[in-house]
Amino acid sequence: MKDKINHNDPAKNMCPHTGNGGEPQYQADDSVPNLTTQQGVVISDNQNSLKAGPRGPALLEDFVLREKITHFDHERIPERIVHARGTGAHGYFELTESLEKYTTAKILTETGKQTPLFTRFSTVAGNKGSKDTPRDVRGFAVKIYTEEGNWDIVGNNMPIFFIQDAMKFPDFVHAVKPEPDRGFPQAASAHDTFWDFVSLTPETMHNLIWLMSDRAIPRSLRMMEGFGIHSYRLINAEGKSTFVRFHWKPKLGVQSLTWDEAVKISGADPDYNRRDLFESIQAGDYPEWEFGVQLFTEEEAAEFPFDHLDATKLIPEELVPVKIVGKMVLNRYPDNFFAETEQVAFCPSHLPPGIDFSNDPLLQGRLFSYLDTQLKRLGGPNFAQIPINAPKCPFANNQQDGHMQMHVPKGRTLYEPQSLEPNKPRANYKQGFKSFNEQLDDGVKGRVRAESFADHYSQPRMFYRSQTPAEQAHIATAYAFELGKVETAHVRTRTLSHLLNIDEDLAKRVADALGMDLPEAAKPAAPIVDMPESPAVQTIGLSPKTLKGRQVGILVGAGSKKASIEKFENAVKAAGGSVKIVAPSIEVKLDDGTTIQADERVAGAPSVLFDAVVSIIMPDVAKKLAKDSSTLDWFNDAFNHCKAIAYCGATDEFILSKLPVEKDEFVTPLDELDAFIENAKTRLWEREPKVRDLA
Ligand code: HDD
To answer: Which residues form the active site (predicted)?
Structure first.
């Protein structure tokens, strides 16, 4: 049989099932722009390839099809070798206090001006499609488009790094990435190669203990600190240098997940942190950080009981306070993820005049690596012309050609010195970037490590001893979890030998949890110093009592009281929190006959996605839900994760009474609204040891 075909009107040949809600996807009038090829030729039919007859074969001459498929075939670029999984947002930087005494950089001297920036947050080990909530360091990279050139502060959410010398970076990354023979585990440090490497490299001990702490599982990207880590220099008008470390302090304080939550969230919502950033910006609840600096002189640095050029060392805030001098607000989610978040290229060597590097050997290696990696990832030397990377101040140079050159340089000369075009740009000694004229020792060339870098235990010891009891338990439990995944006994033993140098009690707790005997302590290369405790490195201690940025899940069902739902919703919102309605179905008929649309079905929104939960359901619904394991988990998990629960009579009678949920002060009946709102601002950490076997 021959199919009938209408060659003049493609719409008449369209499949009746294609199209948007039944709307034909062709141009019926001129109300929307034409779909065209890359060459600007208007496309008449975007549903069917050109065929010799309605049932094939397709014709090679179909340039519309070829162009579409070819472009599609080339959509992917190499993902970042580390920090592949990330999300970002636009915003601005504003200086509140001038650092004129220390630097000439306008971004740090001109107060009250909003300078655009782009910030990208990331996990380190996982690939681009991995989950948001692994136990991992988070990248915290800020590109500020200053009027004197781009300034990239490429930092992390921890103030120190794993290694001291860039020479070790590929080894470190190979050890944490999926093991090369088997290709797993993805986005996880809990495996043999990672612990093998770190236990053989004691300089990793400090960052390692931060990785085992609550800082490695942030509740929200808006609730983590950011650190530039290395010491940099600020250079003032007299050419004088002051050392500086950069800090970002979140307005919402520092808040973390529990490990069990993080594991469950990775199944329930692998985009958990990314979605939170998106939703908060869409809601106008803009993420904000204070910008701070630790300033110190060469002479002061000489008195520190550690070497500040060693990136495995933090400078305790109690020793050198963080001076708050500005803020960052993120107020616009990217229009296009690939064009902006994926193509953004950070590099620690992007600095404006007035800021300079220190001799930190890790930093020095980074200055090479980032530019090099962009050449591969973005395909050539013109990546700085991509809009997200281009400076927003005037720029001009004699660079020419290369892949994807977007500029059309005018004139005869692209070299210097030249005398043919007097108005071409030239270097400017007065305004240009100048390196600090550092007087160097007469060093001897060699592959050496400074002796002042040899102490690997004093700071992790200080970190552990500065934590609250709940945090210490989390740290010990995290070591036990990770080492529990390590198959090779001597790797576990070697790790314990380091923990003994950090804190004996910690080592014992981990050994007991693993059922192992304690080995001899590792031999330290330098004396271990008892530093004063630093509350600034806690997590729980930095978590404010607030509902701002936190989300409450309200479970409702058929016949639920609308007035009660609204009462809770309004109270949560008034306290700065947000609400999601969860129900067995998406459309829910309430007691007054109105139908509301739930945000999520209960099976799709486990309570790990919320900071506190409320249940407002009728007895027949409660009876039915009592047989549903996802509903039972909803309450059980909320309880086990130390959250506030507000319950109605039916929930109590048919669900809570069947569960090991104790009526402590955070489990309250619906009529105690004020108590619930107060509780929802925090967690009841005292509950934790009752519900979890912590190390
Ligand atoms: Fe790195 C990316 C942070 C040491 C080599 N790094 C990257 C990103 C962050 C950091 C946040 C992601 C940037 C983005 O969002 O695009 N890296 C750090 C910090 C370090 C550090 C805080 C130590 C203080 N990195 C480090 C070393 C080397 C690299 C020692 C190599 C010698 N890092 C890279 C890289 C990446 C990168 C391979 C991968 C993608 C990219 O640069 O653009 O060049």
So the answer is: 83, 156
